[in-house]
Amino acid sequence: MSASELAPADLAQAARMAQEASVAGRALAPRGGNTRGWMGRPSRPDAVEISTRRLSGVVHYEPDDLTVTVQAGIGFHDLQRQLGAHGQWLPVNPPAAAGATIGGLLAANACGSLRGRFGAWRDLVLGMSVALSDGQVVKSGGRVVKNVTGYDVHKLHVGALGTLGLIGQASLKILPLPQERRIVLASFASTADAVHVACDIAGSRLEPAAVEILRGRTDDPFGLRLPSMRAGAPGEWALAAAVEAGACLAVRFAGAEPCCARGVRDVRALVAASGGAHFAELLAADCDAAWAALDDLPVGAGAVLRIAATPGTAARLVSEEVAGTGGRMVADVVSGVVHLLWDDAVGPEDMAGRVERLRSGLGQGASCVLLKAPPQVRERVDVWGPRPVSYPLMLAVKRALDPGNVWNPGRFVGEI
Amino acid sequence: MSPPAADRVRRLVESLEGVLGKRWVFHRDEERLAYSYDASLARARPDVVCLPGSTAEVAAAVRAAVREGLPFVARGAGTGIAGGSVPVAGGLVIGLARLNRILEIDLADRYAVVEPGVVNLTLDQALGQQGYCYRPDPSSQKVCTLGGNVANNSGGPHCLAYGVTANHILGVEVVLPDGSVTELGARHVDPLGYDLTGVFVGSEGTMGIATKVVCRIARSAEGVRTMLASYARMEDAAASVSAIIAAGIVPAALEMMDGPIIRAVEEFIGAGYPVDAAAVLLIEVEGLGEGLDGAVRSIESICKARGARQVRVADSEAERQRLWAGRKGALGAVARLKPRYYLHDGVVPRTRLLSVLQAIADAAARHRLTIVNVFHAGDGNLHPLILFDPADADETHRVHVAGEEIMRACVASGGTLSGEHGIGLEKNDMMDWVYSPEDLEAMQRVRSAFDPEGLANPQKVFPARRGCAELRADGHGGRPAGEMWI
Fold first, then answer.
1. Which residue of B lies nearest to A65 if distances are taken between CA atoms?
2. Counting beta carbons within 10 angstroms of the beta carbon of residue A82, is it exposed (0 to 12), middle (13 to 18) or buried (19 or more)?
3. Which of the two ends of chain A, N or C, has the fewest CB atoms closer than 10 A to its terminal CB?
């Protein structure tokens, strides 16, 4: 803990701290598990961290309501464990969730590839309490699953990177744990073939939990070693090998056992018909390990560019292997979110150039955010990219909710 | 000094006629009357009505109104039951009926771009031909517009599994209250910056007018099974709802209707509901064929264990449609029971369904009223209908008192004022039951970022002094109950 860190015991105290900062012209930087310090523009050097570590409880949990209200500082895995004890879960799979808090993940809008099936944070958050810089604690929404009582101000805080206030408490939609989970992996010599099959699955009625394409060029690009496959698969078999061959398709199913089995069967047929090189179905223990490993892939490199586009645009990007950009790739073709992962071998000048080229190629059709990058790259290129057309409204919202510019100034889009 | 109101209105008419042509501008008494109400009990006449034919004309109309300092109110199909489109402060009503084109359907990218006047079901049917669908399905979907759905963040029976309108809107083109046009969101997920789309959806026309809507579309399910469970006791039906959810089953829809509704529906529509039942549950499961039998069996055994007399599974598409026709036409049927009803839209945590239904029954007994229930049970979204005759002043008074008590019971149980119909004029003075003055002030600040002058649909959503409001329960020109949906 740094000497200057604030750690309010409750949200009212956090709001008072914010008001004091506002009066004194100081900046505050909300801090959860500090797992995503690499996101956004740099913090103002004088910003004081304000931690949610003392706000880490479950406020309200009635399992049969299928909702839960938590303080922002609760650990993601801690919450999942508590829900799991009642046969329930929060159906999101953010990468690098170890040590992350719910508040931090909300602020970062860190979802995963399950979002196409189960929704993103904006779909799962039912209400929030937030500390504002005028000293008030305000809430919006509630803890019921349908609610049009007042504005959904809480949605503004999702992905705002703490620039509008300190998220102190959130109510979330949860679900029963799926009866069964399965992962199918298939490798293809050509990325285009993998994309073709992936799009067929994403556009099918199979209701997959996630459909991802993984591509890499080095040995064991993702560091995944997954032994023991179902009989018929070639003995010891590593996902890494599949990826190295060209591209790997990872399809996940979550639901009733017969539905998962049907999904696996249909995917197998699609892969076979399109000349996939290997096919493997992960079972039980392997499935759990692989599931977690897949979740973490999107941010597993020193530099990560995150592209959000329409599913069709995303598929095209992957097919064309994002010409000239190199690196590894993890693409969710259901939601249209592509992560490009670059290692340290790519120099800052080169990396900045690749980002600019991609942005100019994609234009208004996608957002292209440098999620994570060495400082030398961040200096050369705006991590967020060009301001959206509604930027003046965003600025107006910031000024309306944080007139003293206390909360994380400068870190967000357009230096908000 | 501000010129007299009549001058401002006259100048507004002139400038609108200059832009839209005389054909699309209305200011005669009978024309204003036609736009003075929606499906709520609220009535108030606008000064002027216009029907623009393009985004540019909407923007010009907004500019013309604000130049004269007059408020403007966007209007879709007028099916709202909270008074959201009633121009309570006068000014200009901007009807969006002419903006009714589906501009784009992109199956590979899984979105559709529509104008705000497109009817919900029209989009769903256009998609259905290609094996896709638009998920939110308000019961008024045959007539309500997507622009209105955006304004109210509308729900519908299938929101249980798929979420409400906000979960299916990727972006909107908006005419802001200063008459400028901007785009919120995108055609893809995670647009850069604050989620302005997320806060705009459900803002009831107080932040501007959506002139294009980007809707997320989905593959329609491979298979569907619809069943009807009937009960001799309402509490057994409510217990079944909780038990189904608790068992880890989230059906696509889980609707409840009580005895009086069942009988009214049977007389009116003939949906095949058992007329001697105290309650029925209409339950639908969707998905891969492989999973449906198991889901149906589980639900059937849960319902029977909780006292269901009979669980019937629709064995044909025609029977399924008939079961749904009863549900979606339920409000029309209620018109047969009493001349009018007052409909509430409270939401409660699902585990509180039974106790709040009891509180509703108690309120009915205490105030000598008939209250019937048809609602989205799986979501905990209640729709108690308090029946009355507006000619009976004492009864009308008791309706309001009982309504308040019911809403208080919803809030006290951890629920809220509205699940899918909005706050509008009906419930704005109840907002402080749920929110503190500080909460409401923060919302007002967000609103002022969009609408600093407060001319976009004023006096809605937030507690307001109803000075010039002309609220009557028996308004002339008001719609019969049979034209409402929930």
1. B350
2. middle
3. N
